[in-house]
Structure formats: structure tokens, C-alpha cells
Model the fold of this input.
Amino acid sequence: MNVYITGTDRGLGLALVAKFLEHGDTVFAGAYGIDLSGLMQLQERNGTRLSIVPLDVGSDDSVAAAAAKIAGEVDHLDVLINNAAIIGQKDATITDALDFGDMLAVYNVNALGALRVAQSVLPLLRAGTKKRIINISSEAGSMAARVRRGQRTRYAYCGSKAALNIQSILLQNHVAEFGIRVHLIEPGWLRTFLASKEKCTLAPTEPEEAAARLVAFIERDPPPDAMFYDLFQDRPFDW
Ligand SMILES: NC(=O)c1ccc[n+]([C@@H]2O[C@H](COP(=O)([O-])OP(=O)(O)OC[C@H]3O[C@@H](n4cnc5c(N)ncnc54)[C@H](OP(=O)(O)O)[C@@H]3O)[C@@H](O)[C@H]2O)c1
Done:
């Protein structure tokens, strides 16, 4: 399969690149940051099956340039994984100073970024065999879970993931006619860099474990009611 993954410098994205390469696939890895050491190591071991593509999902130009580079190398994509995300302000409530510029950036990357990237490679996905768009969402995007938790913080992160969820429904309503399936994945609480500069050590799960489960999820052709899916509970997530 030809697989395109965003946000692959580290965390879940890098683990997904490694897992798909291990699986024998060809991977286009969207690289955003300056530390590409993890990707470079994978490239040394896998050669031309890994193509590192500069990518800022928040930029129209960058997304278009990445799509053009991929289209220059292959005539189809089987799987797109929109994984890139940022968390923004974490602890501010409505009685604190809210940083609206930061919030716009979070929405632009987490929600619009996924739509931008999906649109940029839609012709390649239509030409593919597997025809999957996997949007890495979060329990943070579940309205039901937010009500249950009585949450008062993370306006941008939760709002952007809820926006990603509803956007994915609109996308699925259309791309079904091309045979494409869209999934939203809650990947579990992971030992990654999302919430801080240091790798999170409190979280129970290594990103490699989530990556292995996601590759298996894609392989096994999940049922249609698995659109918003909890990877570790192995069941649909409530909206
Ligand atoms: N960690 C968790 O517990 C958890 C829980 C639920 C859902 N998720 C979701 O899982 C996905 C992966 O997150 P993670 O935990 O692996 O976080 P992470 O370690 O922070 O990785 C996020 C990746 O996205 C990249 N990125 C940031 N801004 C970007 C941009 N504008 N364009 C392209 N790439 C960009 C980062 O690059 P740099 O490293 O260079 O900044 C990094 O490689 C996200 O969608 C997140 O919302 C995570």
C-alpha cells in the first residue's frame, strides 16, 4: 500500500511510519519540525520505501507542494492518516486570559489541516485500492465525554477535535460515492510530546502500541458503525 501520514517527526506519527514500513508498505511521511533524526534512521533502514515530505498542515502552500511531490512519485495513495496536531493553551478557563490567536492556530492545524490535506490528495486516494482516510481524533472531541467530565479547559483542543469530527462526517457523506471510508480514531493516552516539551511519562501507552493497533484496524475492514473508534477499548466511541 501507499500510505501518507502527517506529523511524523515524533510521537504517534513516527511510530506509524515505522509500523507501516515494517508491514511492507511505501510511506510518505509529512515532516514538520527540525529534528528529523527518527525519520532519518528509518530511511537508512528502508531506503526508497520512505519518502520524507516537508509539510506544515496549517499552510495551503506547504500542503499543495507536498501533494505535488507525492503525485510526482506515485499514481495513487491507499491510506491517508491525518495525525498532526497541537494542543495550544491547556489550563485557561473562561475567567483567565484566553489567547485567541493561539486558538486559531490550533483550529487551523487540527481541524482545517486535516481537510486541507485530504482535499490535496483526493484524486490520488480515488485512484487507490484501500481508500481510507484516518483522522486521528481524541476523546477530547466527544461532546458526550465533555459533558460527563464537566470540563472547563482546553477550549481550542477540544473544539478543534469536535470540529474535526463533524468535518469528517461531511467528508464521508461525499467520498462514500468514490468508495472511500473515513474513520476518526481515539488512540488512547500516549507517551508522546503533545502536552509538554518533554515526553509524557504519566500516560499508560507507548505510541508504538497504538500504531500497531491502528495498522490492524485498517487491515481488518471495520464495520460502518466504527466511524469514531476507540482503539484500545476496541469499540465505537460516543460522539
Ligand atoms: N498523546 C495523547 O495522549 C493523545 C490522545 C488522544 C489523541 N491524540 C492525537 O494523536 C495525534 C498524535 O499526537 P502525539 O500524541 O503523537 O503528539 P506529538 O508527539 O506532539 O506529535 C505531533 C506531531 O505533529 C507535528 N506537528 C505539529 N504541528 C504541525 C503542523 N503545523 N504541520 C505538520 N505537523 C505538525 C509535530 O511536529 P514537531 O514535533 O516537530 O512539533 C509532531 O511530529 C494527534 O492528532 C493528537 O491529537 C494524542
Notes: Helices lie at 11-22, 37-46, 60-73, 100-120, 122-126, 143-149, 155-175, 207-219. The CA atoms of residues 27 and 75 lie 14 Å apart. The beta strands are 2-5, 26-31, 50-54, 79-82, 132-136, 181-186, 228-230, 235-236. The pocket of NAP is lined by residues 6-7, 9-13, 30, 32-33, 55-58, 83-86, 109, 136, 138, 187, 189-190, 192-194, 203, 207 (CB under 6 Å).
